[in-house]
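just leaving the lab so this will be short. what follows is a protein written twice so to speak, once as letters and once as structure tokens for the fold. can you read through it and tell me how you think this chain folds. anything you notice is useful, everything is just below:
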Amino acid sequence: MQVKIGLETHVQLNSKSKIFCGCRNPATMKEEPEPNTLTCPTCLGLPGSKPRFNRAVLDIALRIALALNCNIQPAVMFSRKTYFYPDLAKNYQITQYEVPVGKDGHLEIVAPNGKKRIRIRRIHMEEDPAKLVHSGSFVLVDYNRSGTPLAEIVTEPDFSSPEEARLFLQGLETILEYLQAYDPDTKAVFKSDANISLAGGERVEVKNITGTKEIEKALKYEMVRQANALRQGLSIERSTVAWNPDLGVTQMLREKESEEDYGYIFDPDLVPIDVTQAMLAQAKHGMPELPHQKYARFVKQYGISQKLAEALVAELEIASLFEQAAGKAKPAIAATFIAGDLKKTLNWNELRYRSSGLKDEWILYIVEQIERGKLTDRNAEMAARRMVEEKRHPKDVIKEHGLESATLDLQSVLKPIVEQNAKAVEDYRKGEKKAFEFLVGQAMRATKGTVQPEQIRKELEKLLK
């Protein structure tokens, strides 16, 4: 099944104020503000009000364009995109059309078949419209969101599967976090419109897919829907559909408009802004170490595996935590615990490290205990689980739940196990590895995970010989 997919991703930027007025930017807030409390004549589109461009938004957009290897345009120009909808008070949206901030960039992803370069067609700034709130038989409008700064990242139709689209968005979201352009722990929105077509059919736009996991679900459904229609001899017309995550289906919205329908004109209230060499130099100077750069450095500097490095750099705070831990213990031990047991526990609880309530000093304590042999790998994972649940120092958690490594005579534990499992011992001596692992498991159970498996294996081999 030949498929082409392109993405248009909108991210609400975290400047302190909105893009064309001085109202507070709701995308920086952790709680939803009261409706229509972050407004002024400009973001309400009142007659006579004039937009004033927020330079901080341009600084953020330039960093995004540089991170995605785009050609920066010499001037910033804004246009009016005209359409009539209840959430757009002035009946046009201020955006960039003819001249975006950046174009002709790329982002490399690691797809199932290897590395793949996804071309970025353009990156432009625009304002978010207001928000419609459906309440019974009424539709209300909350203008808090009106004027929230957006960056739109438009790709070429380079994706050949929904999985590739998900991988791209995950990589893009991580880059935006590193740039401090977007904060997922606030009310900021990260969503995509996907254009998808199968050989023999027209392009269909799937609107408003929020998050990186939903993109794969939505595109898989739309692929199957279009394929079934074509198989039945039906035609796929150019249209716009909406993704309904609750039902797991796409629903028809309208026939697709063309760009001409929007009647773009340059906005006469906003003059062009030259992007000077000094502005570019400042943007480049403020660029952080990006995920792919940090990944390469971790592998080289700390000698950890590519898989561990990939897991560590996926969240900026996790990467920073690892570097602290690698200064206090062997990097391999630190990476294995943080990228493995800690991230697994956080993922299970649907938490990010930054918002988990855990403290760096707690994680560093566990890593040090593992290196000193005071905590087994199994019990380190148990301590991480308890910490997330109880929000207490691991020293107290380990003591209360009896997770310390035991100081005992292993031979006295192993001898009864060997005597009680004569069949397994016989099978081991015949060369069956599973029998040996069975005995190790029995010993792990007897010691309640307080002895490292490697130590048990070593002592058990001595005894069996």
